[in-house]
Write a structure and sequence with these properties.
About 35% of the residues lie in helices and about 20% in strands. By secondary structure, it is of the alpha+beta class.
Length: about 525
C-alpha cells in the first residue's frame, strides 16, 4: 500500500502568474505518471511568491497564491482540496489532497512550523513546514528558501542547521492554556522536532546551492559571459554542484548539511538564472537561455530523508518515480522543478539510524525518538485512567442535602464570575501586548524591505540612507520600544537599527501575562 505525491517547487520571482500557465505545468508533471493515476497529494513549495512589501508589511498574498490554488483544485476531473497552507515571509508551502477518494478523512494531527533566517532577522529567507498523519504514517513537507549568491555554501549549510534545530511541531492547546506564557505552553504541549523516528521528511525549495566552476578567461568572457560554456552538456558540471557534494559524502560525518537526505539523479539542465524570456518565450540557444552574469546552477531541488536503520524494510522507503524541470514556464528567472514520489504506507519507515542520530547530537540538533513517543502515549493513557477514577469517585460519593447543594451552586456562580473578570483582564493585556508585538514585527519587516532593495547600492550610500530612515522612525516610536523591551531609550535605537532579537534576546519570549489586580468577589 502506497500513496503518490507530486512535489512542485518554483521561485516565482515576485510576479503574479497566470492560472493557465501553472495548470499546464502541473498537468505536464502529472502526465509523466506511468499509470495515469493522479497523485494523492500535491505539495507546492513557492519562493518569492510576493514582493517583499506585500509579504511583510501589507500581508497581501491572496492575489499571488490564488492562481496556484485554483490550478491545483481544478487539475483533474475529481479535483483537489486544500489541506493547509504554511508560510514564512514570501515563502509558502501548500498541501492538497485528492477530493474524489475520501482520503481527506484519513488525515489527522495537522501541525505547522516556520523558521526565518533572512537579513536583519527578517523572513526574507526561511523554511515553513507541514506535518500530518495519514493512514497511521507521519509525513512532513518542507518549503525552503536559502541564502543566495556564489561562495555562500557555508551560509546555506547554516540555514539547514538552523531549520533542523528550530522547526518544532506543537500539539493543540488545552482549554485555558492560551492565557499562560509561551514558555509555559512549550512545557505543557506535545512537541515534535524536525528529525523524528517513523516520519517521512520531504524537503523542497530554492536551496540556492551553486555550481562551483571558475570564471571564464577565454574570449567568451569578452562577449559578456563570465562563465565558460560546457563542451556538450551542462550535466558535465554536476560533479561541481555544491549540494551534490554535500549529500553524496562517503561518510555521514563528512557531510556539512542534510544528514540522511537523498536526491534522485539529475537529468535536466540548470534551473537558474534564466534570461528574461524573448518573444513567445523563445531563446537563441540552450546556453544563451541563461544570464551571462551568473553561473547556471541547479538551485531548485527536491530531497527526501532515507537515513533510517538498515534493518528497516526497503519497502518502507520513499522511491522517486520522476524528477525533472519544466522549462516551458515563463515569467521567472527560475524553472520549476518537480518530483513524483511513491510513499509507502503499509509500514512505518522505522527509527533514525544510530549513526545519523549520534551525528545530529554533535551538531546540536534534537530528534524525537520512539521512546519519547511511547512515553507520551503512556502519559495520555495515565491521564485517561485518572479521569476515569475521578469519575467513579464522584459517582460513589455520598449524596448532599439541598442546603449543601445550594451552597455549592452559589460557590460555582462566584467562581464563574471571578473567572470571567480575570480572563477578561488577561485577554485585554494579551491583546495589548500582541498589538505592540505586531507593530515591532512590521517595523522590522519595513527595515528589512529597505535593506533588501538597497543591497546593490554602494555601502556608504546604503548606510546613510538606512541610518536616516532608522532615525526618523526612532524619533516616532522610541518610547513604545523602550517600554516594550524593558530597556532604556538609548538601547532602543540599537534595537531598531541592528534588529530587536540581537539587542533584547528575550523579545520573542517576553509575552507572559502579569497577574491581574485583586478583584472584589461578587456576592
Amino acid at each position: 500500500m502506497s500513496a503518490t505525491a507530486l512535489v512542485f517547487t518554483y521561485n516565482c520571482n515576485r510576479r503574479v502568474h497566470s492560472y493557465g500557465s501553472i495548470r499546464s505545468a502541473l498537468l505536464e508533471a502529472v502526465d509523466t505518471i506511468s499509470d495515469s493515476t493522479p497523485p494523492l497529494f500535491i505539495f507546492l513549495s513557492l519562493q518569492e511568491l510576493t514582493p517583499v512589501h506585500d509579504a511583510f508589511y501589507f500581508d497581501n498574498s491572496e492575489q499571488y497564491l490564488a492562481p496556484f490554488v485554483q490550478a491545483v483544485i481544478s487539475l483533474t476531473d475529481g479535483g483537489y482540496k486544500q489541506v493547509v497552507v504554511s508560510s514564512v515571509g514570501p515563502t509558502f508551502g501548500a498541501l492538497f489532497v485528492a477530493a474524489d477518494r475520501d482520503d481527506e478523512f484519513k488525515i489527522s494531527d495537522i501541525r505547522t512550523s516556520a523558521v526565518s533566517f533572512g537579513a536583519m532577522s527578517t523572513a526574507l529567507k526561511g523554511v515553513c513546514a507541514i506535518r500530518l498523519t495519514f493512514e497511521g504514517v507521519e509525513l512532513t513537507f518542507v518549503a525552503a528558501h536559502f541564502a543566495a549568491h556564489s561562495g555562500k555554501r557555508h551560509v546555506r549549510d547554516s540555514n539547514f542547521v538552523n531549520a533542523a534545530r528550530k522547526l518544532a511541531f506543537f500539539g493543540e492547546l488545552s482549554p485555558g492554556d492560551e492565557y499562560t506564557s509561551f514558555a509555559q505552553n512549550d512545557e505543557q504541549r506535545d512537541r515534535d522536532f524536525f528529525y523524528k523516528d517513523n516520519c517521512h521528511l520531504i524537503f523542497a525549495g530554492d536551496l540556492n546551492y551553486r555550481v562551483d566552476v571558475q570564471e571564464s578567461t577565454t574570449t567568451v568572457a569578452s562577449k559578456g559571459w563570465t562563465w565558460p560554456f560546457p563542451e556538450s552538456s551542462f550535466l558535465e558540471w554536476l560533479p561541481d554542484d555544491e549540494l551534490s557534494t554535500v549529500i553524496s559524502a562517503d561518510k555521514p560525518e563528512e557531510a556539512t548539511a542534510f544528514w540522511g537526505f537523498k536526491e534522485a539523479d539529475i537529468t535536466f539542465d540548470p534551473t537558474f538564472k534564466i534570461k528574461r524570456p524573448l518573444k513567445n518565450g523563445a531563446v537563441e540557444s540552450d546556453f544563451q537561455a541563461y544570464s551571462s552574469s551568473r553561473v547556471p546552477s541547479w538551485c531548485d531541488r527536491v530531497l527526501y530523508f532515507d537515513g533510517f536503520e538498515d534493518d528497516s524494510s526497503s519497502a518502507s522507503s520513499i522511491s522517486v518515480l520522476k524528477y525533472s524541470s519544466i522549462p516551458s514556464v515563463a515569467g521567472s528567472d527560475h524553472f520549476p522543478v518537480y518530483a513524483i514520489l511513491e510513499i509507502p504506507l503499509a509500514t512505518t519507515p522505522g527509527p533514525i539510524s544510530s549513526v545519523i542520530g549520534d551525528l545530529l547530537a554533535t551538531k546540536g540538533i534534537a530528534t524525537t525518538t520512539e521512546d519519547e513517543i511511547t512515553n507520551s502515549m503512556h502519559d495520555e493513557q495515565q491521564k485517561e485512567r485518572e479521569a476515569e477514577t475521578e469519575t467513579d469517585a464522584d459517582a460513589n460519593a455520598p449524596s448532599l442535602s439541598s442546603e449543601q447543594l445550594e451552597q455549592a451552586e452559589q460557590k460555582k456562580r462566584q467562581l464563574r464570575a471571578l473567572y470571567k473578570i480575570t480572563t477578561d483582564q488577561m485577554s485585554a493585556q494579551t491583546s495589548h501586548r500582541y498589538a505592540r508585538m505586531g507593530k515591532l514585527r512590521k517595523l522590522e519587516s519595513l527595515i528589512g524591505f529597505f535593506n533588501y532593495y538597497f543591497a546593490t547600492v554602494p555601502g556608504f550610500l546604503w548606510l546613510i540612507t538606512y541610518l536616516v530612515i532608522s532615525l526618523a522612525l526612532y524619533l516616532q516610536i522610541k518610547d513604545p520600544i523602550a517600554e516594550f523591551l524593558h530597556v532604556n531609550k538609548g538601547t532602543s535605537i540599537l534595537a531598531l537599527i541592528f534588529g530587536v532579537d540581537r539587542i533584547a534576546p528575550r523579545y520573542r519570549r517576553h509575552y507572559s501575562i502579569a497577574q491581574p489586580e485583586p478583584t472584589t468577589l461578587p456576592v
